[in-house]
Amino acid sequence: MVHTDKGTGVRTRFAPSPTGDLHVGTAHTGLFNWLFTRHHGGTVVLRIEDTDRKRLVPRSLGGIPEALGWLGIDWDEGPGVGGPYGPYFQSERQELHQRYAEQLVAQGDAYYCFCTPERLAEVRQERQAKNILPTGYDRHCRNIPPDEARRRVAAGEPHVVRLKMPLEGQITVTDLIRGEITFDARTLEDAVLIKSDGYSLYHFANVIDDHEMAITHILRGEDWIPSAPLHVVLYRAFGWAMPKLAHTMLLLGPDRKKLSKRHGATSIQEFRDQGILSEALVNYLAIIGWSWDDKQEIFSREELIEKFDLDRVKASSAIFDHQKLEWMNGYYINHLLTLDELTARALPFLARAGLVDIATVTPGTPAYEHIKDVLALEKDRIKLLSDIPEMTAYFFTPTVEYTPEVLLNKKQKLTPEQVREVLPAARDAIAAGDVADEAGTEARLDEVVARFGLKRGQVFMLVRAAVSGRTATPGLFETLRVLGQPTCLARLDAAVAWVEGRG
Predict the structure, then answer these.
(1) Which residue has the higher pLDDT, 378 or 409?
(2) pTM of the model
(3) How far is Cα 77 from Cα 87, in angstroms, rounded to an integer?
(4) CB-CB contact of 422 with 414 (8 Å)
(5) Torsions phi, psi for 3 (to 5 deg)
(6) Is 353 helix (H, G, I), strand (E, B) or coil?
(7) Which alpha helices (DSSP H) does 107-197 contain, by range?
(8) Whose CA is closest to 487, among 430, 426, 422?
(9) Which helix (DSSP H) or strand (DSSP E) does residue 424 occupy?
C-alpha cells in the first residue's frame, strides 16, 4: 500500500513517444499518473520522448498535447507551459545524455562497442540457437583497453555506448503495485545507452531526465518491467536515489491479446472522431484496472481525484471493452449532459454531414432550438455523437425518400389498396389541427383508426413512415410536433403521390 501523503512533493512524469496518434493504452497510463499526482497534490510533468528519430511522426509532436488537452489531462511543467527543469523535448537534451554516458565510460561502468549490425545479428542467432545466456550480445567489446577504444572513437569508427551489467547475482526491483520482482543478472545483456547516431536510447535518457527533473514516482505500463533492472544498475552507477516504481496493467482486447486496431478504435483521436465524450472516456479508462468498490462505475473528475490511489490498482491485465465504453458514453449523453451541452457537442457532427450550417446556428436562434428539440427526442438512444446525423437526418432535410419496404411495410399488415385509402385520410386528419397539440393529433388519428376498423399501430406506423421515410422513430406525436405542421403535410402529400404513382 502507498503511504505518500499530500504535500510531500510528489512529482510524476508522463513521457509519451511521438510515433503516431496517442494510443488509448498510453493515455490510460497517463491518466493514472495524473490522478495519482493530483490526489497527492503533486506536480505533473509532460516530457516528449522524441529520441527515436526513425519512428518520429512530426504531427504527433502537437497531436499528443492536443489529445491530452481534450481529455482534460493537464500538466504543470512541459511543452507550452515551461518549467525549471526544461527543455521538455528529450531530443533537446542530447548533450546532457552524452555527458552522462561519457561519465559512465570514464568510471568504468560503460564501454564503447564497435560491433557491426551484421555481427550482432549473427551472434544473437547463434546464442539463441544454443540458449546461451544472455541470448543477445556476447560482450565482445567489454574488455577492449580504454586507450584503444578512445583511439577508435577518435578515428571516427562507428560505435555505440553499452552499460556494463552485473555478470552474476540478482537484481530486485520494488514495485508499488506488484511487490518485489527479482531478476537473474546472468539473463541480462549489456544494454545500449547511446546509439551510433548519437541519440540516447529510451532507457538511458529516461533515467537521466527523471533524475534531472526530480521525479519521485514513475508510473508506467507493465511492458517496461524488463527494463527495470537496467534502470536499477544505472541509478547505482550514478549513486542516485531511485524514484518509486509502479507498473500498471496492459490493456487487452476481448480475445485477451494486446489491444490493437483489429479490436476497433485505439487512438484518442479516433474515439473523439467517433463521438465519445472526453468525460466518458476518462471515466471508463479510470475504472479499467482500478476500482473504488464493487458497485460504483460513474465518477466525476473530482471524485476520481479524491478517491484514486495505487493501493486499489490491480496488477493483472485488463480488458478494454468497446461496448462498455459506448454504454458509458450513452449514459453520459442521456443523464449527465444538459440539452445545451449536447447540442454544442452535436453541432460539429451535424455540420460535417451537411445537415446544418454551423455558422448560422447560435443559441437562441430557431435553428438552434430546433436541434435541441430533435436531440431531446433522441438522446436516450444516442451512444455515439457520430450516430446523430444518421439518426436525425430526416429532421433537417426538406424531403425524404420512400421505398416499398418502408411505406408498404409488411408489419403494418395493410394491403396496397388500404394504404392508398388510409394515407390521404390520415393526412387530412393531421391537416385539421396543429401537430403542436400532440393530444389533439392523436385523437384525430384515432378517428381514422375507427373509421377503417384498423388497429392503432397500423395507422400510426404508416404515418411514421410517411413523415420520416423510416419504420422506427421516437414517439410518433413528439416526432410530428418537432417536424412541424408544414413539413408533416408536405411529406404526407409526397407519400400519397408516391403510393398513387405505383398504381
Answers:
(1) 378
(2) 0.91
(3) 10
(4) yes
(5) -115, 25
(6) coil
(7) 117-130, 146-154
(8) 430
(9) helix 416-431
Choice among 258, 261, 314, 413 that is catalytic: 261
| 3-class secondary-structure state, position 146 | helix
Distance between start and end Cα atoms, the chain: 78
For residue 199, give every residue at least 6 positions away whose Cβ sits within 8 Å of its Cβ, in sequence order, or none: 51, 52, 53, 91, 94
Dihedral of alpha carbons 182, 185, 189, 191, sign:
positive
Which residue has cell 533524475? 211
pLDDT tops 60 at residue 48:
yes
Strand order in the sheet with 110-113: 110-113, 160-163, 192-194
Nearest CA to 308 among 18, 10, 99? 10
Assess contact for 188 and 165: CB atoms under 8 A. Answer: yes
DSSP assignment letter at 21: S
Is 261 known to be catalytic? yes
Three-state SS string across 296-341, please?
CCCCCHHHHHHHCCHHHECCCCEECCHHHHHHHHHHHHHHHCCHHH
Sequence-distant (≥ 6) Cβ neighbours of residue 290 within 8 angstroms: 32, 308, 312, 313, 314
- Amino acid found at 486: P
Rounded CA gap, 39 and 41, in Å?
A: 6
Task: Name, in order, each residue with C-beta under 8 angstroms of 154's C-beta and a sequence gap of 6 or more.
Answer: none
Q: Nearest-CA neighbor of 281 among 337, 311, 320?
A: 320
Contact 10, 216 (CB under 8 A): yes
251 pairs with which residues across the strands?
A: 318
- Residues 328-353: pLDDT tens digits? 999 999 999 999 999 999 999 999 99
Which residues are CB-neighbours of 236 under 8 A, at least 6 positions away? none
CB 161 within 8 A of CB 193: yes
Q: How many CA atoms lie within 13 A of 186 on its CB side?
A: 5
Q: What are phi and psi of 248, to 5 degrees?
A: -85, 165
Mind listing the pLDDT tens digit for each residue in 143-171? Answer: 999 999 999 999 999 999 999 999 999 99
Predicted confidence (pLDDT) per residue in 12-41, tens digit: 999 999 989 999 999 999 999 999 999 999
Residue pair 486/410 in contact (Cβ under 8 Å)? The answer is no
CB 79 within 8 A of CB 48: yes
95: Cβ–Cβ under 8 A, 6 or more apart, which residues?
none
Identity (one letter) of the amino acid at 501? G
The whole-angstrom separation of Cα 460 and Cα 103 is: 83
Contact 49, 205 (CB under 8 A): yes
State the DSSP string of 192-242.
EEE-TTSPBPHHHHHHHHHHHTT--EEEEEGGGGGGHHHHHHHHHHHTPPP
Cα–Cα distance, 342 to 336 (Å, whole number): 10
Cα separation values, 173 from 164, 226, 255, 312, 485, Å: 18, 10, 31, 20, 72
